[in-house]
Amino acid sequence: MTSEPFRSQLAALEQRGRLRSLMPRAGRDFASNDYLGLSSDPMIGQAVADAVARGVPVGSGGSRLLRGNAPEHEGLEAKAADFFRTQAALFMANGFAANLALFATLPQRGDLIVADELIHASVHDGIRMSKAVAVFARHNDVQSFSDLIVGWRAEGGKGRIWIAVETLYSMDGDMAPLSDLAVLAAKHEAMLVLDEAHGTGVFGPSGRGLSSGLDGRHNVVTLHTCGKAMGVEGALICGPRIIIDYLINRARPFIFSTASSPLMAVAASAALDRIEQAGDLRERLKVLMVDAAEVICAPLGLPAPRSQIVPVLLGEDRRAMAAAAALQEAGFDVRGIRPPTVPAGTSRLRISLTLNVGRADIAALGETLRRVLA
Q1: Hey, what CATH class is 25-40+279-373 in?
Q2: Among this protein's residues, is 195 annotated catalytic?
Q3: Which residue, 86, 168, 215, is CA-closest to 352?
Q4: Among this protein's residues, is 69 annotated catalytic?
Q5: Catalytic position from the list 73, 79, 188, 198
Q6: What band does 1 get if pLDDT is binned at 50, 70 and 90?
Q7: Who is most buried in 110, 128, 168, 359, counting CB within 10 A?
Q8: Tens digit of pLDDT for each residue in 32-70?
Q9: What per-residue confidence (pLDDT) applies to 216?
Q10: Domain segments of the chain as ranges
Q11: Out of 29, 99, 228, 333, which one is annotated catalytic?
């Protein structure tokens, strides 16, 4: 097999300033999704150590439907259903696998998926595997969602409608209009699929996410990833029992995957306990958001952030990567984000606020950023 097609494509990426490579962790953390700093939390670590001591195995040994189903998995799912106030939950390896399972499995032939145009790449990949028709609404535009639904019905569409959004968008830091979307879903008897990847742990009562006001509704499915503010790994699909049972029976990413380690289920269970009691951490993170508004956004003429994600749009790919490199050289781990992760012409710095840094770090970043972009 010749390597030329791969070499030429990589060369083209490099020429456009889009060639990616792995780089080690270095500098102050303004890049991770470890928003509450729980990835090194001693309480979670101790829960895993205690599980090892009592003989919980490192590996699962198989898929959940074979011999890989452990008491720790089922215990986590029961706790998650209770915590997120839903009928049932299903533990998946990660958020990508969970979205793949959701959208490749639940919408049926003859159904319609209406997704926000900026929704996660994993949703796009799940949609490609779906038998349903899919359309994309303008970002956070409820009227656009409505028009697409009405237009589909007018053309004879008779199946179920699935409305899919992120509650908090990972590259823009803005929030979906959940109340209006819930009204729209009720009007059209639609299912509402809410990706809480960046909201879980940070927002809502006890960190239950931005969708907490829609707890337990029969037409709502939520996805809570464990690898961001929860600080561990995996993802929890939460919703009506019939939905979870259907995924167990039909979702190929679940059926044909080796189950996650029982130790990771222990870690995720401990992380749920931790975020429930983490009101002090959420308040500290809010203080950092206010600081970022004052020393990063205001001097650059940017609006104050509504969340822990602060995008600095620079437009051109090479400019974003050059700015990121300069900040990294100065000791700040800020990453440049380019297409296809974001739309063409919107390359940016994505500044992630976490409790792995303090107020002095944010002030120093703001000063350095102004110098880099001058």
Answers
A1: alpha beta
A2: yes
A3: 168
A4: no
A5: 198
A6: low
A7: 168
A8: 999 999 999 999 999 999 999 999 999 999 999 999 999
A9: 86
A10: 25-40+279-373, 56-276
A11: 228
